[in-house]
Amino acid sequence: MSTVFGILLLLIAVVAANILHLLWPRLPLAIYQILAGVILALIPVQSHTFELEPETFLLLIIAPLLFNDGQSTALRELSHGIRQMLSMAVFLAVVSVLVVGVGLHLTMAATFSLPLAFMLGSIIAPTDAVAVKSLSATVAMPENVNRTLEHEALFNDASGLVLFGLATSTLSSGHFSLSQGIFTFLYVFLGGIIFGAIIGFLVINLRTTLMRSHVDIGRIVIPINLMTPIVTYWFAEELHLSGILAVVAAGLVHALLYTRLRLTSAKVQIASTTIWSMASDILNGLVFVFLGVTLPGVLGHTAIGHLAEIFVVAVVLYLVMGLLRYLWSQLKFVDLNSKPKRRKKDSFLLALGGIHGTITLAMAFSIPHTINGQPLAARTTMILIAAFVIIISITVGTLAFPRVLPKKKKSYRQSDFQDQLNKTVHYAIDQLADEPGGAAEKAVVINGLASQNTLTFKTHQALFQKIYDQAHEVELEAIAKLNEEGKVTDKIARLYVGLISRELAGRGEGLFSLWRAAYYRFKWHRVRHKVSRIPPAQAEYFKHEVASIQQQIAQVFDLVYPQVNTYLKEIQTTKNIHEVTMVRRSYFNRQRLFRRHEHLDNEQIDTLFVAAFQFEHSYIQQAAANGVISIELANALNEHISTDQLVYIQSSN
Question: What is the mean pLDDT of the chain?
Fold first, then answer.
C-alpha cells in the first residue's frame, strides 16, 4: 500500500473518532481514536502494514505538537513556576527512570539488562499534556495542579528522550561513564534550549521585518510559522542536540512575539491560531490512531501467557510511577502551593495526571531492531509494555477524574447561547429597519445577519406562513388604498398583485411547489427568447417599457412596506420574533429583486453592517447589565459576533 493511501486511512479514522466523540462524549477522545485505529487494522485491507519511521514520527508529528504547546504557553506563569517545572520535568523524570530501571533489572534480570531497563524507564517516564486535557475537559481540575501538569509535560519529553539516547548508546557500546553521561545530558538539554531560542528569535525577526514592510503577508508568515518546528528539530538533531527541547524553546520565544504584537497583527494571529488548532487536533489524533493500528499486529505475535505477564508488568510500572509522583508532592520535592486540607488530594491528582501518550509511543517505536548486528529480542515486549502503560493511564484517568473532581460547570448552557444569539440578531435586524438607507442595501445586510443564526434556530414553518399571509393582507389593503387615492395606476396595481401572488403560490412545500417554480422559470426563458427575436427598434422600446414598469413597481413597494413593517412590529413577541424576522427578510429580498438592475451602494452596505454589529454588541451589553445573561455568556456572544465581524471584513476586502 502506498504511504499516501495509508495516511489517508489514518485521517479517515481520526475524523470518524472525532464524530463518535461528538455524538457520545462519555469516553475521552483518545480512547475513540485508539479504538478507531484497532478497527482500521482489522479491516481486510493492508492498513496494518503501514509503518511510520520513528524519526519521521518525531519530525512531522511530535515536533509541531510541542512547538504549538510552547507558543501557547503563558510565559508569566511558566516563569513563576520554573522551580516546579524543573522538579517535575527533570529531577522526577530522572528518579523515575532510575527506580523503574533498577526495579526491572532486579526482578526480571533474564529479560532486562540494566541498559534495557533504563531504556524502558525513559520511554514510560514522559507524560502527555494533551491526553490530560482530553481526560479533564469536563471536570474542574484545580488550577495549581493543572498548571504543574502542563509545564511538566512541556519539558519532560526532552528528559525522556535524552535518557533514552544515553541508554541506547550504553547498550550499543557496553559501558557507561557517569561523567560522560552528565556532560551529554547537559549538552543535549541546555544546547537544545539555547539553539531553539536562537532559531526562534531569528524567525521572529524575519516575521516582524516582513510585517513592517508589507501589510498583507499572511500567506508568507503563516507557512514560515508552520515550517519552523520541522526545520528547528531537524537542525538540532543534526547537531546532536535535543530537537524536542529546541522546538519547545522556539515555541516559547514565539509566545513572546504574540504577547508583544497582540493587536498589531490580529489578522495573521487569528489565522495562525486557527490553523495551528486544526493541525494540533489532527496530529494528536494521528498519534493515538497509529497506536491502535499497531496494537493488533504486536499482540498477534505474542503468546497469551506472555501477554498476561506483560500486562501485569505494565500495571506494576504504572502504580510505581504513580506512587513516586504522589510521594514527590507529599515530600514537597515539588510545591503545589496547596492548602493544608487539599494537599493529599492535590498530590493524588498529580499522580493521576501522569498520563502517557505521544512521546512514549514515539520512543517505543524508536527502539532499535538490532544492537551490534544482533536482533533485540526484547523489542516487542518493551513496545507492548509501553502501549499497555499508555492505555492503563488513560483508562484510569477516564474512570477516576469524574469521581474525584466536580463536573466543570458553565454559567450557561448551549441552548442559552443559541437563544440569546437569536435574540441578538433579531434585535439588530429590527434596529436596521429604522436606519437610513436603501431597501436593497438593507436586504443584503439582513441576509448576512440572518446567516448568523441559521444553524442555531429552526423556523416554525406554520407560524411563519401564517404571519406572512397576514402581512400579505396588509400589503393588499395598502395597494388598494393607494389605487383609490390615484397614487398607483390600475395597470401597475394588477402587475404588482400578480407578482406577489405568484410568489405566495410558490412558497409552499412539496412537488407542487417545485413544479410551479420550474414552470415560471421555463416561462421566463420563453419570454426572453421571444424578446431576443424582436426587431432592434421594437426591442429597445420594449426594454425601456419594462424598465419603467420595474421602477414603478419598486416605487409601489417603497410605499407599501412601511405599513407592513408597522404591522410586523405590532404583532412581534418573544415567541414569534424569529418568524417575524424571516418575514421581514423576505420583503427585503423582494425589494432587492425589484431593484436588481440598480447599482448597490457598497459603502452604504458596509456602513449598515458596522451599525448592525454595534447593535448586537449593545444588546449584549445591556442584557448583561440588566442581569438577563451572565458575564461569561456575554463574553462568549461578544467573541462570536466579533469573529463574524472579522469574517465580514476579510470577505469584503
Answer: 79
